[in-house]
Design goal:
The protein has one domain. Helix content is 43%, strand content 19%. The protein is built from 4 helices and 6 strands. A 4-stranded antiparallel sheet has the order 2-1-3-6, covered by helices on one side. The longest helix is centred in the first third of the chain and has 47 residues.
């Protein structure tokens, strides 16, 4: 009766040694367990990455909305269309997001202005006239998000929405 010494033959390639061990019953269980667990680990990792991208988009959107609200608050008496000027500022501060997908709503001195424009005929009328010092200017921005995991959107209809209110200067 010969006993195996566990000495490896140097000329045997590594992959051949692995398959010999699997065929002989050594470490085959670990290989099967790994094959069963791997798809679950990849699914969890991809989900974490998708949520991380969505969180990054939300933080970018929140920061851009805050910058836009600060701009709107100090823009009193400067523009006939303060909403369009604010949208231009927000669009330049959203790297990685598609500005065409942003949806804006403005509330200036209690009056809502949905859409991309709140054009006034003069600085004393319309949205420009509503910009009274000490009153509130609110910017609300929405952005569609997609949490894709292997091509399937796990939360359809997801929308990132943020708002900031500033006192008009």
């Amino acid at each position: 009766m010969q006993r195996e010494t566990g000495v490896r033959i140097a000329s045997e390639p590594h992959s051949e040694r692995v398959w010999n061990r699997v065929r002989n019953g050594n470490d085959g269980g670990a290989l099967v367990e790994f094959a069963v667990v791997l798809p679950l680990l990849l699914l969890i990792t991809t989900g974490i990455l998708s949520f991380g991208i969505a969180l990054n988009n939300f933080l970018t959107l929140t920061n851009a909305t805050s910058i836009g609200a600060r701009f709107l608050a100090v823009d009193r008496g400067m523009n006939l269309d303060p909403c369009a000027a604010t949208i231009a500022i927000v669009n330049t501060t959203v790297p990685g997001l598609n500005p065409a997908n942003l949806t804006f709503t403005f509330v200036i001195n209690g009056t809502p202005y949905p859409g991309p424009s709140c054009n006034s005929t003069s600085l004393a009328a319309g949205a420009a006239g509503s910009m009274v010092q000490g009153t509130a200017a609110q910017v609300i921005v929405a952005y569609p998000c997609s949490l894709l995991v292997y091509g399937k959107n796990i939360i359809p209809g997801c929308t990132l929405k943020t708002q900031t209110t500033e006192d008009i200067q």
